[in-house]
Amino acid sequence: MNATRPASMSSFWMPFTNNRDFKANPRLLVSAEGMYYKDVDGNSILDGAAGLWCVPCGHNQPRIVAAIREMVGQLDFAPTFQMGHPTAFDLAERLMTYTNNKFGHVFYTNSGSEAVDTALKMSLAYHRVRGEGSRTRLIGRERGYHGVGFGGISVGGIGPNRKHFGPLLPGIDHLPHTHNIDKNAYTRGEPEHGVNLADELERIVALHDASTIAAVIVEPVSGSTGVLVPPKGYLKRLRELCTKHGILLIFDEVITGFGRLTTPFAADYFGVEPDLMTTAKGITNGMVPMGAVFSKAFIHDAFMDAPAGIELFHGYTYSGHPLACAAALATLDVFEEQQVLAHAASMKQYWEDAVHSLKGLPHVIDIRTIGLIAGIELAPIAGKPGLRAFTAFKQAFADGVLIRTTGDIIALSPPLVLEKQHIDELFGKLAAVLKNLD
Ligand SMILES: Cc1ncc(COP(=O)(O)O)c(C=O)c1O
């Protein structure tokens, strides 16, 4: 384990990174505990982003660390193709309980991107096994992020993530995004305006006919494009329309799953049930890569009616990896024993008030909050989109707080175990950064 500066940084081609800028001026993390990282110079960095939205229970959570250590000494790897290991089944049962038995089955992947592609493939295959093979069209949404697989970028709605990689999947359409600062600026929770945007699905159905559409996929709250909270009633309306037209509804809960909105999933928060739900990140508290697709029983059961043999020709070498399963079970233990959701709920008001106290600071043009998430939108520098927020990110890191930025939006999503003093520290430092920003 290297806790010093690497001799060379040239070989690692870093993901979603300005490699040249980073390597000229690196930010290197060497350890973590609770709410803080330590950088290579020994500075403490308060984690305002839960790593990458993925550490709800805080860093190096001892119970989860111990579970992983124990498992690696017992079962390093076991295939789950025509084989199994008990922990994978135990975890699946626990996950059913954690979702209040709203789903019947869970399929393991290693990441959010794989969970998304799995859910899209399940949707296509589900219609096919039921004899509705004409349903091949997939509907995403502008400003949606669904990872980086070809399925995910095809239904995703972020131009730069798509433009170099065509041709993407055929037969894709997109709903409009719901972001509207003119009408909904400075909202706490769901904004008032925009439920009618769900009706755009009717327009797409009229154009292509429902008999050609397999599924709609949306993030209940868009995270990666800057915390876009759905307008009041929007998700319910989408659910109604999907049901009406026999279209599967997929919620991508890779960010919102495992407590981000203070409920187990965003589906619980909004009281809307999807047919398939993709998750990752917090499922293992970020400690071992894992994703999962939750499926309603009727989808799974449609495959079980097929002639004997492998029902779904899909899976990953590391689906249900023993270390990931052990980490996920321990994460659920921590959620339960430490009442992580109740604690997050008890912090929500303080969090919300602290975020909205930034209103009026230079360049701030919108603030939006829901659960323990916040989006702070800055006015862009003319001709240099994203530069202002990225400068804030760098300065905040130098001042000892990790924030995340996307375009000119600061997105905050701390570990759910934070206390009031962490909120004070985070917003004290962030306010100072914003006050001094060009
Ligand atoms: C909503 C959503 N879906 C999918 C993904 C992709 O997950 P991964 O990076 O684990 O592939 C992300 C990642 O941030 C996400 O936010």
Descriptive account of the structure:
It is built from 16 helices and 16 strands. It has 438 residues and is α/β, with parallel strands linked by helices. Strands 4-11-10-9-8-5-6 form a seven-stranded mixed beta sheet, with helices on both faces. A five-stranded mixed beta sheet has the order 7-12-13-16-15, with helices on one face. Strand 8, helix 10 and strand 9 form a beta-alpha-beta unit. The two termini are 39 Å apart. The model has no long low-confidence stretch (mean pLDDT 97). Bound molecules: pyridoxal-5'-phosphate. Pyridoxal-5'-phosphate binds next to helix 5.
Biggest sheet strand order reads 4-11-10-9-8-5-6
Report the structural category: alpha/beta
What does the main sheet amount to?
7 strands, mixed
Helical stretch tally: 16
What is the helix content?
A: 25-40%
What gross morphology would you assign? globular
What proportion of the residues form beta strands (DSSP E)?
A: 15-25%
The chain-level mean pLDDT equals 97
Q: Say which molecules are bound, naming each kind only once.
A: pyridoxal-5'-phosphate
The overall strand count is 16
Q: What oligomeric state is this?
A: single chain
Report the C-alpha radius of gyration, rounded.
22 Å
Ends distance: 39 Å
Residue ranges: pLDDT <50 for 5 or more in a row?
none
